[in-house]
Every structure is written in C-alpha cells, then in structure tokens.
Amino acid sequence: MLRYVTTNPGKVREAESYLADGSVSQLDFDYAEIQAAELAPIAARGAREAYREAGGPVLVDDAGLFVETLDGFPGPYSSYVEDTLGIDRVWEIARDLEDRRAAFRCTLAYCDGAGFAASPDPVDRGDRVAAAAAGPDDAGSDGTPGPDGTGSETERAEPLPVKLFEGYVPGRIVAPRGDGGFGYDPIFEHDGETFAEMDTERKNAVSHRGRALEKFAEWYADR
Ligand code: ITT
C-alpha cells in the first residue's frame, strides 16, 4: 500500500480524490526538512527517510507560498513562518507591497526503492559526492537499505532514486477571507476567490497540489 507522508490532515483531504480508495493511507511521520532554496531536494530527502521508516512505497508532499517581490519568501520556510508569525502577520507584511503577486508550489516525491523508466517528470538521484564525502553515517541516512535496513557502505553511498511531480498556481496575497482549507488559504486569492472560499473540489481543480497529484496519479496508475 502507498503511504501518503504528512502530518497535515488538510493535505490528505485534498489528496484523497486523486488516489483510489483503499490503495493509500496516511503516514503521520515528521521527516527532517533540510534547509534548501527549493522544495524538490527537501521532498526527495524526506521521501528517502520516509521509505526507510515505512519499508514500502511512500509519497511525500512538500509545499510553500512564494511571494514574488519578497524574492520568493517564505517559500521553503512557509511552515516555520506560519508557526512563528502566523498568516495575519504575513498579510500585514504583504499589505504594504505594491505588487502582491505570489504562487503556491507543491512537490510530490515518490520512492519505492526501485529505479524509474524515463518520463517527463524529473528523478532526484541525490548528491552522491556529498553523501560519500559525509561518510557512512550521514550517507546511510540517504542510502539504500540492505535486507537488515542498514546496507553496506557502498550501498549507503548510492542514494535511492526519487521521482518528483511538481505543481504551481499563481495568485496574490489579500486580506484574510473564507473559512475553508488550511494554512495560508485565507490570504491567497486566485481568480477573485481565496482558496479558503473554495471547497476542496474547486481548490483541487486549480491548485498546486491538484496539478501535482494529477500528474502523479496518471503515472502511478501504470506503475
Ligand atoms: P507536512 O510537512 O507534515 O506535510 P506541513 O503543513 O508542515 O506538513 P509543508 O511543509 O509542505 O507541510 O507546508 C508548508 C506550509 O505551507 C505550512 O505552513 C502549510 O500549512 C502551508 N501549506 C501547504 N500547502 C498549503 C495549501 O494548499 N494551502 C495553504 N497553505 C498550505
């Protein structure tokens, strides 16, 4: 069974309509999020860690809000910023900007321990040089587990391949409106409505996560 790796029930609600009943379940697992300017390496590394935890196929969902005139802030730090500042203060910061364009991005990272045939969606093969240089302990955190879950040193220096599916939606930051959704939804407007004013079906039809899940579901049906 595929495990959808997240601590956020809002993401699971949105993912459910793309993934066949009974074929997926939530894995409430808080993988370590490395610091990076982009979502893909964070999600890929999280998928390797979650695969080792689950011992079977996993799908990690990493998302963020990128405000254009703040050079993409909070981006990969969206979770930290929501927890510390909160969305009302993010709105207060954005309110004074002349240009409040922003985008949500979502990266889904899939790992099942095997390799991937070529397809348009990218594969993260990890940074083998850095993994090898970091030595067996750190390389082990990215490496291929052997039958006993540890692997030989050579195996551990070869990170597992992770397939990536990306989704994006443009919009702008507005004063909070709406009661639905989660996270930054009340301050993100797309086509005249905030995501918190849309029900799950309508948000999915246009959202970063909906786009990424659509690509994943089509690919996964053949796997
Ligand atoms: P997991 O890492 O356990 O999946 P999380 O909520 O921390 O849960 P992310 O790191 O991907 O997930 O999310 C970064 C932040 O962006 C976090 O504050 C979320 O609430 C928010 N976020 C993610 N997707 C969102 C969406 O579709 N609408 C609104 N906010 C979203």
UniProtKB/TrEMBL annotation:
Residues 129-152 have a biased composition (Low complexity). It comes from Halorubrum cibi. GO terms for molecular function: nucleoside triphosphate diphosphatase activity. GO terms for biological process: nucleoside triphosphate catabolic process. CDD domains: HAM1. GO terms for cellular component: cytoplasm. SUPFAM superfamilies: ITPase-like. Residues 122-160 are annotated as: Disordered. InterPro entries: ITPase-like_fam (IPR029001), RdgB/HAM1 (IPR002637). This is DITPase. Belongs to the HAM1 NTPase family. Keywords: Hydrolase. It holds the Pfam family Ham1p_like.
